[in-house]
Amino acid sequence: MKRIYMDYAATTPVDPRVVEAMIPYFREKFGNPSSIHSYGQESLESVDAARLSVTDLLGADPSEIVFTGSGTEADNTAIQGVCRALEKRGNHVITTTIEHQAVLRCCEFMASRGFEVTRVPVNKDGIVDPSDIEKSIQKGTILISVMHANNEIGTIQPIAEIGKIARKKGILFHTDAVQSYGHIPIDVDAMSIDLLSISAHKIYGPKGTGALYIRENTPVVPLLHGGSHEQGRRSSTHNVPGIVGLGKASRIAKQEMDQEIKNTTALRNQLLQLIEKNISGVHFNGHPVDRLPNSLNLSIEHVEGEALLMNLDLEGIAISSGSACSAGSGKPSHVLMALGLSETLARGSLRLTLGRYTTREEIEQTADAIARIVKKLRDLSPFGKERP
C-alpha cells in the first residue's frame, strides 16, 4: 500500500539536500564552535553561514539571530524574556485567542507570575482586527504577540498593521512565524517586527532546531543560563548539524518559494473542489484568500473527525484534525471554537496540508478516499438521515 502524507503543517520530511549538507557535521566536522582550535573554528564558520541564510529570508542582520532547540523555545524565550526584562516598566501582554499553545501556555505561565494577559478575539475567518489590538493597549503593556499564520486554518494575520501600531506605541512586537517562515515572504523591517520565532522541521529541515530573531537593542532575559553562547542570549553547545540543516533548508526555501507557492496553491484548490463536488455539508474554515498556499481546513457535517482520520490512516493517508501538539487532548480545537463553530462541527474537522512532494495523483486519491469514508460513516451514523 502506497502511503500518502497530507500533514505538512505538523512536520516535513527532511529534504535529501539538507541531509547531505548535515552529514559531514556528525563525523568529519564535529568540532565545538566555542573551541578556538581549527576543528571548532570550522564549525563556527558553518554556524555563521547558516545564520546568514536565515537572515536572507527575513531581511535581518546575522547578529540578530539566536539559534534555539525549537520554535517552542523561541516563543518562550521571546515572551518570558521580554516580560522579565521589562517587568519594572509594565506587566501587560496582548495576544490572540488562536495562538499556538507554545504562546498561549507561556502567557498563562506569566499570568501565574503576576502578569496580565489579554486575548483578543478573531472574526469568523480567523483574522484579528488591528484596531482591537490597539484598543487593548494599556499603560503597562510591554509586549504584543500575534502569530503570522495559523497552524490549523492557515489564516495570515495583518502583521504589518499590528507592527505599526506597536511601534507607534513603543511596545515590543513578537510574531510566531513557525508556519510561515520559508513558505511566504517575510520582512521584519517592513512589518515592524521586534522578535520572530521559526522552526527548521517545518521547512524540510531537521527536528530539534529553531531560531529567534531579536531586533538589535531589544531587551530579552535569557531562558537558559550557562555559558556565553549566542552572545550570551542562549546557553548550550550549538547543535551544529541541526543549524547547518536549518541554513540549507532556508537557502532552498529562498530559491524555490515562488514556484512552491504556485504549485501548492493549485493542488490545494483542486483538492477543495474535488471534496466539495463529492461531499455535501462541507464547511471551509479560515480566510478564503489570506491564508497559506498549502493549507486547507474543513468541517464535515454528521461525521466525527477522529473516526474519519482513523479510517483514512487505515488506507495509508495521513491527515490531522488540528495541531499535532494538541492531538489526543479530547477537546475540540480552540482555534475553530474561536471562529464561532459549534462543538459538533469543530469535532468534525480535517486539516489537510500539502507540501513539496505532494502530487496531483495523491490529491485525487485523497479526495476519493475522503468521499468514500464519509459516506460509510454517515450510513452508520444515527444522524445519517439528517444530512443535507
Describe this structure in words.
There is one protein chain. By secondary structure, the protein is an alpha/beta fold. The protein folds into two domains: 4-11 and 257-386, Alpha-Beta Complex (Aspartate Aminotransferase, domain 1), CATH 3.90.1150.10; 16-252, 3-Layer(aba) Sandwich (Aspartate Aminotransferase, domain 2), CATH 3.40.640.10. The chain has twelve helices and twelve strands. The strands form three sheets. A seven-stranded mixed beta sheet has the order 2-8-7-6-5-3-4, sandwiched between helices. The chain has a three-stranded antiparallel beta sheet with strand order 9-10-12. Helix 6 (159-169) links the parallel strand 5 (141-145) and strand 6 (172-176). The longest helix is centred in the C-terminal third of the chain and has 39 residues, at 240-278. It is globular. The two termini are 33 Å apart. The mean pLDDT is 94.
